[in-house]
């Protein structure tokens, strides 16, 4: 049986670089692993009444069951206002409840942050790490995956161009898989 790693992109827009990185990652899964993109686009904003009143929207139930089926997570996040985009934070919040039934617990995670500029979404990367501590997700420390100038990384068809950044991302995936194998419970 293949180990399934969920890939979550923190952007909804059609031409999102985070989505393009996510799609490229799917092709980098080594033997014995499946990298599965988990769609976060239709998840309603979390309202605790959903759980308290047993009226969980279908899209939330679906997301939780999709996440329950993965054994590790790679977050591919851009940065909004020096933090994690709301769509990704909302997915994290939705998956963390009801209390005691978090879909994140103990799942080894990696964060691949990216930006069109120089700073590579460093702020989002580290704010996300703060949530992972509380969610009890071990997070890969090294290599830190900061992808700058992500807008230069794709050709017109949305394929990742060959070069040092692609090589670095592939190596980061290899490191994650090696580290995952030691940290999976
Ligand atoms: C609301 C908003 C806030 C943003 N804040 C930041 C920021 O703090 N740092 C940054 O590097 N880029 C920021 N950007 C620019 C994004 O890095 C850029 O739009 C990027 O392409 C978004 O990721 P995506 O391509 O995956 O959609 C912001 C964009 C938006 C729409």
From TrEMBL:
Domain of life from the UniProt record: Bacteria
Coiled-coil features, chain-numbered ranges: none
GO MF terms, alphabetically ordered: oxidoreductase activity
Keyword set includes Membrane: no
Gene3D superfamilies (UniProt xref): 3.40.50.360
Keyword Zinc-finger: no
UniProt keyword list: Oxidoreductase
NADPH-dependent FMN reductase-like domain ranges (all copies): 5-150
EC identifiers of the protein: 1.-.-.-
One Pfam family cited in the UniProt record for this chain: FMN_red
InterPro entries: Flavoprotein-like_sf, FMN_Rdtase-like_dom, NAD(P)H-dep_reductase
Name of the molecule in the record: NADPH-dependent FMN reductase
Organismal lineage: Bacteria, Pseudomonadati, Bacteroidota, Flavobacteriia, Flavobacteriales
């Amino acid at each position: 049986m293949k180990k399934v790693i969920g890939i979550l992109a923190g952007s909804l827009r059609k031409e999102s670089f985070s989505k393009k990185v996510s799609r490229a990652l799917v092709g980098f899964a080594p033997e014995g692993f499946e990298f599965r993109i988990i769609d976060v686009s239709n998840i309603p904003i979390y309202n605790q009444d959903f759980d308290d009143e047993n009226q969980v929207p279908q899209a939330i139930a679906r997301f939780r069951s999709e996440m329950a089926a993965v054994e590790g997570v790679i977050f591919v996040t851009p940065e909004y206002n020096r933090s994690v985009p709301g769509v990704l934070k909302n997915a994290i919040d939705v998956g963390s409840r009801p209390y005691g039934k978090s879909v994140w617990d103990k799942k080894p995670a990696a964060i691949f942050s990216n930006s069109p500029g120089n700073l590579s979404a460093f702020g989002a990367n580290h704010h996300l790490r703060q949530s992972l501590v509380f969610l009890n997700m071990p997070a890969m420390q090294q290599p830190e995956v900061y992808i700058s100038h992500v807008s230069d990384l794709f050709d017109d068809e949305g394929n990742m161009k060959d070069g040092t950044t692609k090589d670095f991302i592939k190596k980061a995936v290899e490191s994650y898989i090696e580290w995952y194998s030691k940290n999976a419970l």
